[in-house]
Every structure is written in structure tokens, then in C-alpha cells.
Specification:
This protein has about 350 residues and is of the alpha+beta class. It contains 11 helices and 7 strands. The mean pLDDT is about 85.
Length: about 350
């Protein structure tokens, strides 16, 4: 599906409000995010015909795990540049637009990242810039609105508090003006409720965390790739089919390696005792033959040294196990020959 591209050089605001719509599917363990104007987002959710900027279905928890992080306060610095372009010292509109060009470039980069929280914030930033452009006290209004939009990037994104006491932490920082969301109930082909926000991500995060707690799901770290993922319980240790396949391949490799090493030790041990028992026979009893025992003992010492060397080669992959086995059989024939002389 081809989505609309947002124009960060346009100088006229849109008539419709840009919203971030989120639906969660507990059974399939997926999340769906749609970003667009309100009416177009509704159409997209109901029959797939909306002209929107983003629509993706991803593994459940992805929104929280990959949420935009801004510990360096880049978003705020760019917001201050937009605010300064409203100043009385810059009376000409052309000069104001020129000041906003580097910010537009920054927003284009965030939009192109494909991360929905960054993409949505980029669109909303430019929309708010246009909304406040000609208003009295527009500079202060712009900063208030963008501050509410960006706060989760360092309150939530930087700290990842969702792993422990996220709900309690959010309740302490969530301001009343940031708590507003719409809940679109199932209608027509839309089979799930949809939570929709525009001013702040915090209520979306709170909603998401509440659902995770209600369903009893937990965040885990994948044993194969090391990435965070949302699981039905602590018993799930792998994040995807790819990681399950990789684990199966590695498990088979380890099994084959253990089996090879076990077989290697068995072959080596059997050959060792084959020699040992024959040498022992030459040294004991009435039929003892010390002269022959000395010759066999010398050959046995040479065999042990060479066997250790070749076993190490098998372990390093420099010799096949079958070749080592054939050599051992040959050495057994050699001690039989020495015994018969």
C-alpha cells in the first residue's frame, strides 16, 4: 500500500487534525498503528480506503519497546528554533520561514525513520508550527503544545520505566491536559476498540500498559537475539519464529558436536584399552614374554602420542571422525601383528 508523504515545506495548515490511532489484538499478539487526519484514519480502519501517512501491524509491545528516545533534547532544541522564528526581531515572514528550514530537515529525518512515534511527532510539530504562526502569543502556545508532545521522549523513552513501575510513574507525571484520548468502539469492519490521541503520547502509553497488565503479559529479553519483546508469560524466552529456528539450528549443532565428541572419546578409549589389555597379557602369568612386552610397550607409547594428536585434529575439524576411526582400526591390526610375532 502506498501512503501519503508529508510536506515539511508547506506553509498552510491542514483543515483536519492529525491523530495517532492504536489498536491491540490480544489473540494474535499484534498492534496496529494508523496515523492520518481524523476522518481519513476512520476510513482506513473501517475499509482501508483512507489517505493516511502510516499504517502498520506489528508484534504486540513494539510501540513501547521502540518508542522514540530523546535524552539529548534534540526535539526541544528544534522547537525553540521555531519559537524564536516568531520573535519581534524577525518581522518578515520570509525570514521566519528561512529560520525553520533546518528544523524541517530534522523533522524529515525523523519522519523517514519509520518509527511511528517519531513520524507522528514530526508531523504534529510542523502542524503546530503552522497552527500558531499567525496567532497572538503563538510562540508561547507552540512551546506548550510541543512540550506536551515531546515529554514522553525523555520521561518514558529514555528511562524505559515500563519494565517495572511504569503505570505508577505515569500517573505522577500525566497532566490533565495531556490525558485526553478518544476511544473508537468496534464498528463496521473494525473489530477492535481503537484508542486515539493527538496532543500527547502519555495516555496511549498508559492505556497500553494497562492492557498488558490486564492480560498478564510480561516483557522479556530474547535468549537468541537479545532484543526486548512482549510475551504471554515468563516461560516464553524467544521473540520470533526466526529466533526459534536459530535456536533449533544451534541446539542441533550442539547435539551433533556432543555426539561427535562422545563417539570420539568412545573410539579412542576402546583403542587404548585394546592395546593396554594386550600389553598386560604379555607381562603377566606363566606365558609372560618380557622381551615382546618391551617392543609392544614402545609401540603403545608411540600410539598414545599419535592418537592424542589425531583426536585433537578431529576436534578442530582438521580430520574427519571416520578417518580417525579407520586409523584406530589399523593400529589395532598393528598390535595384533606385534602380538603374533
Amino acid at each position: 500500500m502506498i501512503f501519503m508523504e508529508y510536506d515539511f515545506s508547506k506553509q498552510e495548515r491542514r483543515l483536519g487534525k492529525i491523530v495517532f490511532a492504536l489498536t491491540l489484538d490480544r489473540k494474535k499478539m499484534t498492534e496496529r498503528i494508523v496515523i492520518g487526519e481524523t476522518n481519513e484514519t476512520r476510513r482506513q480502519l473501517e475499509d482501508g480506503t483512507g489517505n493516511i501517512f502510516y499504517d502498520r501491524t506489528r508484534p504486540l509491545g513494539k510501540f513501547l519497546i521502540d518508542f522514540e528516545t530523546d535524552t539529548g533534547m534534540e526535539w526541544n532544541r528544534n522547537a525553540m528554533t521555531l519559537r524564536e522564528s516568531y520573535g519581534k526581531a524577525i518581522p518578515l515572514e520570509a525570514a521566519r520561514w528561512k529560520m525553520a528550514v533546518p528544523v524541517a530537515d530534522f523533522l524529515r529525518g525523523k519522519y523517514a525513520s519509520g518509527e511511528p512515534s517519531a513520524l507522528f511527532a514530526a508531523i504534529r510539530t510542523w502542524e503546530e508550527y503552522l497552527n500558531c504562526f499567525h496567532l497572538n502569543h503563538g510562540a508561547d502556545m507552540l512551546i506548550r503544545r510541543l512540550s506536551a508532545l515531546y515529554r514522553p521522549f525523555f520521561l518514558y523513552g529514555g528511562n524505559r520505566t515500563w519494565q517495572e513501575e511504569a503505570t505508577a510513574a505515569l500517573s505522577k507525571v500525566l497532566r490533565e491536559e495531556e490525558a485526553a484520548v478518544e476511544l473508537w468502539y468496534p464498528v463496521l469492519k473494525r473489530s477492535f476498540e481503537c484508542v486515539v490521541a493527538s496532543a500527547s503520547f502519555l495516555p496511549l502509553i498508559a492505556y497500553y500498559l494497562h492492557k498488558i497488565e490486564e492480560w498478564g503479559f510480561v516483557f522479556q529479553k530474547c535468549k537468541v537475539c537479545g532484543n526486548d519483546f512482549l510475551a504471554r508469560s515468563r516461560h516464553y524466552e524467544l521473540c520470533s519464529d526466526d529466533c526459534r529456528k536459530k535456536q533449533a539450528v544451534e541446539a542441533k549443532r550442539e547435539f551433533d558436536e556432543r555426539a561427535k565428541n562422545d563417539r570420539l572419546e568412545q573410539l579412542h578409549e576402546a583403542a587404548y584399552y585394546y592395546w593396554y589389555n594386550r600389553l598386560r597379557k604379555l607381562k603377566r602369568g606363566e606365558a609372560a614374554d618380557l622381551e615382546k612386552a618391551a617392543a609392544v610397550g614402545e609401540a603403545f607409547a608411540a600410539f598414545r602420542k599419535e592418537a592424542v594428536k589425531r583426536k585433537s585434529m578431529v576436534k578442530r575439524g582438521e580430520m574427519k571422525l571416520t578417518d580417525f576411526s579407520s586409523w584406530l582400526v589399523g593400529q589395532q591390526n598393528e598390535v595384533d601383528r606385534l602380538m603374533g610375532e
